[in-house]
Amino acid sequence: MTMSAETLDLKDKCILDFQSLEASLNGQSKTPFHAVRKQAIERFAELGFPTIRNEEWKYTNLMPALKAEYVLSHGLQSQVLKTTLTAKDVAPFLVPSMKANVLVFVNDSYAPELSTIITTLNGVTVSSFAEALQRSPELVQKHFARHAAFENDALAALNTAFAHNGAFVGIAEGVVVEEPFHLVFVNDARRNAVLSQPRNLFLLGANAEATIVESYHTIGSHQGFMNVVGEVMLEENAVLHHYKLQNDAENSTFVGATQVHQEASSVFNSVVISLAGGIIRNNLNTMLAGKATDTHFYGLYMVGGKTLVDNHTLADHAMPHCTSNELYKGILDDRSIGVFNGKIMVRQDAQKTLAYQSNRNILLSPNATMNTKPQLEIFADDVKCSHGATSGQLDGDALFYLRARGLSRERAQALLLYAFAGEVIEKIRIEALREYVDTIIAARLHQEELKAA
Amino acid sequence: MAREEFDILDEVVTSEYKYGFVTDIEQDIIPIGLNEGVVRMISAKKNEPEWMLEWRLKAYRHWLTMREPTWQNVTFPPIDYQAVSYYAAPKQSAKPQSLDEIDPELRATLDKLGISLDEQKRITGVEGTPRIAVDFVMDSVSVATSFKEKLKELGVVFCSISEAIQEHPELVKKYISTVVPTNDNYFAALNSAVFSDGSFCYIPKGVRCPMELSTYFRINAENTGQFERTLLIADEGSYVSYLEGCTAPMRDEHQLHAAVVELIALDGAEIKYSTVQNWYPGDKNGKGGIYNFVTKRGVAHKNAKVSWTQVETGSAITWKYPSVTLKGDNAVGEFYSVAVTNNHQQADTGTKMIHVGKNTKSRIVSKGISAGRSQNSYRGQVRVNKTADNARNFSQCDSLLIGDRCGAHTFPYIEVANTTATVEHEATTSKIGEDIIFYFNQRGIDTEQAVAMIVNGYAKEVMNQLPMEFAVEAQKLLAISLEGSVG
């Protein structure tokens, strides 16, 4: 019972904060944008934070993470949460030698002094979500909460209610941007526990192409909670390469939803790499709303300690001739817990669908756990869908082969794990980023090897 | 072989639900409704001992506190539990001694069900070559059990559960609700409160049961629910193969069937449990049919094996998960299933394999076939506990779609908490290729027959697990169920 009382605290706090925020709004409270936020807080009030009784949260218990005395990052708290971070503090979060547009957000506020924009192409709009809302309210309102439904998702509802800060990337029709956009989200929890809620919107016009990298970080010893919602709109033939890099501190909780809407012949490539953190929950959903779209979901989680990584994905095939392909791989050590829930939905009109999904896991420690739920829901008959899931240990034969060639047990294991992870890492198209991830993983495996030897 | 298949198909093309007759037999039905009095009345009718009544009441009181589950992937209008009669029994003065003594109507029923005269004799215990011992349950009451004497020589107890409560209370008391607790789920609690009969079987240590044991379930009376309870105990080192068949008359309204089956395989024992379920599925428009909400679970102790095989073609809604708890080291669990849905049928079925002991193995092969406007879901759980070193699981669940109005769904839950475990899951969904159908057509086989043959081939892996006598019947059923789904 005490548990639920604690939850009520944060829930009530969110609702109260919303009320005071609303009271401070003056004229803005009449906008359609705010009307949506209002609906969202009402829905959040009804739903409350999800417990493990909720099927979508069956294996991920958020309750302990809700106990901290969070300061919610929103307009009224800007003084309390005012950042004092310098470029030096943020430097470790950047990917060395990656030539990219870097946008830094501290406690979800855009920090232009820490950011660098190098792309100067016409037709590329990069700004904070708040700025985009101010400049082109109609465009933002057209997409805001249209893709990421909050009806049955309390955290998306909460994010929607406080939607204000975050990133906006708009690429006009036919524009191809070479340089990636690296969005660095930092929770500054040095003085107090922070609950920040970045809201992102990426719009790619027809035939446009872009690359977006998102990474999340916590500084300081207080709890950091980040609740992100990103909406992605891909018009016809648009191509988006999307990367998520998660290598955060133990005192962090991350819940992030990415909702993609794909029009005909668009391509969405996603790679999610989770290497450390407290609780990591990724919701990655794509709606295949046009014909002949292409979707690739790749994921690698390699965690130890007490980290919990929960990946929920949904490929929602609504139109014919679409292809979705998914590969998630996991390596779980110590007391870590992995959760994978991959859903393929094929609606009645989505004939000639090809949908594949695979989830493979290796448990390194007797105390690690993996919960997998690959799920197919198929309402059309002319389709080819398959999924596979395995959980186990390294192949004994392969280990033997390497050991017979004079490698130590530890070295052989490290080598095999490296190859296991490699299958996902090689899907990263940005060379600098691929090498960066590769180095982290190689270093970690080397450490493990030394520790074991 | 080919000849035989054609005969089957011929038969199929001309038949609908052939078990849809009603036996006009005198029934002892208690009024509809459910309350503590009804539970007491059922217990009193069965002349049960005090502990059994207490057990029922406990279950009933718990049931009152429970809510109907809502997570399933099937939909049905709310069930009015007060509109069901919880006890219906064919009126009979004493157990029949020869065929002539049984009610001719009942004999006619057996005839129509395709139970041969020989089998009828066996069922009624007259004479005959021993092969299958049958317990015939009509409207939840065991009508006849054959071969009792023969089995008795080996120490095998095979009788109705009410008889077992009277004659072997120590066994019943020791094992009942140890696998499926009375408060396990909504329907199991309801069953515990009101079950009227069912089968009981005990195989003593080291005995290999010489014949297939079989239960034939039939719902006959109107507005009744069937709540039978099966308890099967295989003592150390024993073996038994058990068959279960089900039919019901065609009726416009839905009827509830909520059974509980508990299997206990003690050290080194093996239980093979096969079901051919052909309850009335409702008509083409989804009117009527049985709700088949059953709890089936087995526990396998050290070196024991529990194997479920099911062919599910009937019922408006099939909602069940025959499961195995692999409790002892080296235990083995198996689940082979073919679930066919046509017209407006819905199925949400699968299994649970809970690995507790070391070196435990489980295998799941599930074949779903959906046609018409039906929805077919596989839902399964494989859990490897921390204690289950070297656990091994392989699951395969395939779905076949016939027509573009049906759905096939897969919900596997895989939970692994042991580093030495190996768990594999595979699933595919596809339709029958046009090229394959074309190949058949080219050879003069029409599309409907072609589909029946393809489906039989597709389901063969599971059919092979069935005992011979059942395999033939199951094959026919598959074809009947899909009749009219093509073209």
Q: What can you tell me about this protein's structure?
A:
The complex is a heterodimer of chains A (453) and B (487). Chain A is 25% helix and 38% strand. Chain A has 453 residues and is an alpha/beta fold. Chain A has 9 helices and 21 strands. Chain A folds into 2 domains: 2-290, no CATH class; 401-453. In chain A, strands 1, 4, 5, 7, 8, 10, 12, 14, 16, 18 and 20 form an 11-stranded mixed β-sheet that branches. Chain B has 487 residues and is of the alpha/beta class. Chain B has one domain. In chain B, α1 crosses α13 (468-482), α2 runs antiparallel to α3 and α7 (161-167) packs across α8 (169-175). Mean pLDDT of chain B is 81; it is low at 5-15, 93-98 and 121-131. Chain A binds chain B through residues 55, 59, 348, 351, 361, 363-393, and chain B through 71, 384, 386, 399, 401-431. β20 of chain A pairs antiparallel with β23 (407-416) of chain B, so a sheet runs across the interface.
Task: Walk me through the topology.
The complex is a heterodimer of chains A (453) and B (487).
Chain A: H1 2-23, H2 32-47, E1 70-72, H3 87-90, E2 101-106, E3 109-110, E4 124-128, H4 129-135, H5 137-143, H6 154-161, E5 167-171, E6 181-188, E7 193-196, E8 199-204, E9 209-219, E10 224-234, E11 239-247, E12 252-262, E13 267-276, E14 279-288, E15 294-303, E16 308-317, E17 323-332, E18 337-346, E19 354-363, E20 369-378, E21 384-392, H7 396-404, H8 409-425, H9 431-452
Parallel strand pairs in A: 1-7, 2-6, 5-8, 6-9, 7-10, 8-10, 9-11, 10-12, 11-13, 12-14, 13-15, 14-16, 15-17, 16-18, 17-19, 18-20, 19-21
Antiparallel strand pairs in A: 2-3, 4-5
Chain B: H1 2-13, E1 27-29, H2 36-45, H3 50-65, E2 88-90, H4 104-112, H5 117-124, E3 132-138, E4 141-145, H6 148-154, E5 157-160, H7 161-167, H8 169-175, H9 186-194, E6 199-203, E7 212-218, E8 229-234, E9 239-247, E10 254-257, E11 260-265, E12 270-277, E13 289-300, E14 305-312, E15 317-320, E16 323-326, E17 332-341, E18 346-349, E19 352-355, E20 361-371, E21 375-384, E22 392-402, E23 407-416, E24 422-431, H10 434-442, H11 447-458, H12 460-463, H13 468-482
Helix pairs in contact in B: 1-13, 2-3, 3-9, 7-8, 11-13
